[in-house]
Amino acid sequence: MSTFARLSTASFVAVAAALAACSHSDAKYAAASDSAAPAVAPNVVTVTARDFAFDAPDSIPAGLTTLHLVNSGKQLHHMQLIKLDSGKTVADFAKAMKSMKPDSPLPSWAHEAGGVNAPRPGGGEASATLTMDPGTYAMICVIPGPDGVPHVMKGMARALTVVPSSAPAATMPVADDTVQLSDYAFSMSSPITAGTHTIRVVNDGPQPHELFIARLAPGKTAADLAVWVLHQQGPPPADPMGGVPAMSVGEDEFVTINFQPGTYGFFCFVPDAKDGKPHAAHGMVKQFTVS
Fold it and tell me: In whole angstroms, what is the distance from residue 135 CA to residue 153 CA?
C-alpha cells in the first residue's frame, strides 16, 4: 500500500538523520525469450519490516532481484524504493523533502522505483521481482498508522546501495497475466482464475501508480477497504496480499500470487499529481471474483 498523502515536511525532518546515516523497455523480454542459455535464478533479498524499522542488507548486487518482505510488526508495512539519480545521496533526498509542501511531487532526480507492497501484519510475507539498477536508493515505509502518522516519520527508513555485478544475467519470469496501471484504472490481460499466477505489473502512466492486492472478507467490498485504510479502526475488511508500491511511468515488476476462490480487490493509494487525493478516490479500485 503506497502513499495515502504526500509526506509532510515534519515527516522528513524526523527521518533526515536516519536517511543520512544509512525504466526498462520490452526489448529485454524479447532478448530473454530468444536466448537458448539455461535459466538463471534472480538474486533473492529478504527484508524484515518491524514497528518501525527495516532489517535489510546495506548493499546488494545489481540485476534481476526477488525482494522478499516479511512483516513481523503489528501494523501494515511495505517496502517503497526511491531511486536517486547519479550524484545524489539519501542525505540530499532528506534535505529536499524538508522544504517541500505536503502534496508536492518528488524532486526530479528522485523516482518511485517500486518494491514490495504490504502483506498482512504478524508474519505475513510477500515478494516481487524487478531489475535493480546500480545506484543509491532510499527504502521507506509511508503507510500511516491508526494515528495518521506515516511510518517513515517514526524512523522507518534506510539507505540501500546497489552495486554493479558481473554475475550472469538472470532469466526473466514468465508471466501468465499482465495488469496495466493507468489514470485511473487497472486493465487485466485476462480474468484471474484460482491457482498460482505470475503477474507482470506495468505502469502505463501518465503518473506513478501502485498495485495493492487484498482478499476481501466475506460480505465486504473493495469500497469498505478503501474507507478502512483512512483510519484503520476495528478489524480490517480484507487480508493484504502484497503487490507493487508506487512505480514511475514505464516501470514494471513481477508478482506471484496464490489466488484461492473468493473476492479480491486491486487498489492504488498513490496521491494524484493534480489534487493530492489518493487514486482510489478517483476510482482506481477494481473488485473481482476468483472461482
Answer: 24
